[in-house]
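Exam revision sheet. Question 4 asks you to relate a sequence to its structure. Input first:
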Amino acid sequence: MVVRKVGKYEIGRTIGQGTYAKVKFAQNIETGESVALKVLDRSTICSKKMVEQIKREITILKTVRHPHVVRLYEVLASRTKIYIILEYITGGELFDKIAKRRRMSEVQARKYFQQLIDGIDFCHSKGVYHRDLKPENLLLDSQGNLKISDFGLSAQPPEGVTILKTTCGTPNYVAPEVLSHRGYDGALADIWSCGVILYVLLAGYLPFDDLDLTTLYSKIEGGDYSIPSWFSVGAKSLIKRILDPNPQTRIRTEDIKNDEWFKKGYDPVKFIEYEEVNLDDINAVFDATEDLGNDNAGPLILNAFDLIILSQGLNLQTLFDKGKDSVKHQTRFVSEKPAKVVLSTMEVIAQSMGYKTHIRNYKMRIEALSANKAENVTAILEVFEVTPTFMLVDIQKAAGDVDEYFNFYKKFCENLDDIIWKPPGESGTSRIGKSKSRKRQ
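Answer key, structure tokens:
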């Protein structure tokens, strides 16, 4: 039998498989330590324009080295593959434990919540905001200790930036201010998600849940939930302070740690913080990767004329269309955000507007939930790459009234203002306003 090795790691069986990567069990032949080895194909991540997204996630994982965050050891590469060496977690997802037990005792739930707060507080101290906290992204090690994972939607804004604008996350766990599209504090939004998780641990079900998405978002924004009778007085009090729809009055992490219910049996994690984080291996691996990707299966390549139009912030399609209302059938905008963030944001916005969504690769179909035929708009949204830093979102009307489609598009883009790129000189000018005036020409 041929034994495969990557560096000092001996590769074993496949233990997981995603859309773009395989995860294999591996062992450090020098120390005997078991690790999870994530294997990515260079040409695939380049053709799918995922380089910057993966670099950002890896950088963040290296930055937040904490006992309750999944540890990233190093990044290696061959001519065709990239290998991400991660801590091997054997206890599965916290979600599976909840699904099996339904609800937990206060002692067990408090232990997991304490570890979650320890880990997320450390992330915040490093300027990292997770933005997708939920039981599926919380793993358990062999000792039953919690590990925060999946930083794919996380943010690490520049120093001095305190307000985030990108709407993303999992609807049932998203803070109300994230849905308002007016900007939010990443730390307070994460705290809200932690509160939802605590509720789920104690109750066995979600505090905010509804088949109708419009109703769900209304409940979240209004803080409309009920607390089961079996919750202790202390647990009820803390959850109410966390699930406060007003972020200005919502409890902060330091106050959570001083809460009497939280402090019971609390043993703060002890660890030695690494003073220096070396990112040289990440840059070395991905600098070489970015030159690959001459793949005909990649996103649409726009010609020079299209690029000139987009660089001026104009849409001259109407000059070549025969019908006066043709622009109402097909519209587009440009974003500097990664494709995954663009898709996630559009999904959350569409759902908050009362539409159901279907995503496959870089194409999303949205359909109105209303039975009213006049409002029954269906649209197809597709993300393409213009340059490595610019994404084009093409939106086409698939069904419904033309005027209703335009009303949908206008409202939709108003809520996407934080991800829509505006050319120099347009700051302070509404892109939607310009778009509307062009439609009336």
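Marking note for examiners. Residues 289-329, 427-441 have pLDDT under 50 and may be disordered.
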